[in-house]
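Dear support,

Our group has been running a series of protein-ligand predictions, and this particular one with iron/sulfur cluster is the one our PI (initials K.S.) wants archived with full inputs and outputs. We had some confusion internally about which version of the output was final, so please treat the block below as the authoritative record. The input we submitted was:
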Amino acid sequence: MRIVFIYSGAENLGIEYISSFLKSKGHQVFLLFDPAVFSGDILGNSKLLASIFNVDNLIIKKLADLKPDLVGFSAYTGNYRWCLKIAKNIKEHLNIPIVFGGVHTSAVPERVLQNKFIDYVIVGEGEYPMLDLIANLHKGPESLLKTPNFCINDKGQIHINRPRPYIKNLDVLPFPDKSLFYEKIPLFEKHYLITTSRGCPYNCTYCSNNMLHNLYCHENKNIRRRSPDNVIEELKRTKERGKASLIVFCDDVFTFSKPWLKEFVEKYKVTIDIPFFCSVHPSTINKDIANLLKQGRCWLVTMGIQSGSERIRSKVFNRRGNNQQLIDAVACIKDLGIKISVDNIFGAPSETEDDLEQGLALYNQINADRIMTFWLTYYPKTKIIDLAYQHGMLGDEEIQRIEEGYTGYTHGIGSVSNCKKMIYYKYQLLFQLRSLVKNEAFYSVLSKFVIYFPLKGLLTKFLIFLNAVKNRDAKFFHLIKYCFCTKKNIP
Ligand code: SF4
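Confirmed final output from the archive:
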């Protein structure tokens, strides 16, 4: 059968895995891609530029030429509205079955299925359900009424079937189908995206893993990992192609197992030896782990701090570890000369200015190379939504809008007062200044002035840019190149 995936804005490993899996079973898979430079999270939203670079009609035209048997969308909360728009457009012009999967779909399948132009809805891991769907496509949705992972409308009654067990042995899966995205955007190959695991051992209240742990509550182990040899085999092929200058490990937490990391690094440094980037959780970091990262040529580590307030971290975010452990974890990485970028989330339910002040005090001590600040985003069916509801930051209507994919940033949806927003803007600016200016006396003088600067948002963006330049941030410059290098004939 011929299957077309439609996606926008970035490479997607989930689609690449499903594509190679389906191809290994004899199916043909294609991709239509919207670069979404001006309509996604890349350069911010510009209605005018987004309309000039709009490719919606081109997608329909190319889809008509490809004549697929099935069209697939992988929806997360941030792209869900875009997926709906394209899917509706397809149904109005072409009679092709449409399937929705992805993390947003898994969270609210019944809501997704309410859209009449969507024929099939899959929850959870997609490889085997896609195979089931293709096998039963000619029989219609009713034939999948009892099939795991499907959400089916049976004469007005919605059935959500439990997902089948996780794929335990990830080594059985074919390597992700990189050609799908590289044919559209050759630049993607410069930063090779790979994952060595699926799932996360932690359960932070704001993360989509929190929803997935509930969806797969019948599983006693959420995290699975490929063998080091299997990962090395994939990377050898990348190395042979000679185009990747950075390996990007997309694992939620790359450092959760020391024995695995030890074996992997020993093999990686003799066979691959390309600088890499990874994400870590502070409680997985000690001197031994940091040493292993260094031996493997780790260039940059990103670590979630999320809040300098121990109360917010433990009571609101469900993240372990006191401030001293965070300071020690960052020091382990920095002492070895590995760059470290830390993440901070603004807008937690019950967060006060005192919590933000504690954050500033913590960042003064840990001296990370970069502090990335984000607004809390509400993802459907995560625990933080309940907490925000209890604190009066979200009401029923707002929760419904989040489930409908109207991206749920705390300051855009829910009740963060204007006065509180101004406080956040001040700390956003100070956190950026802190990561840029290392000299204490200079920082102390500057910080007294910048808080009176009227255009704090603009100044914050400028400092983010300076921080990226100062750190020679390969990922930032990669993103800039992406905006200018989109190949002709996209989608
Ligand atoms: S550690 Fe990261 S990936 Fe894991 S649950 Fe927490 S936020 Fe999500």
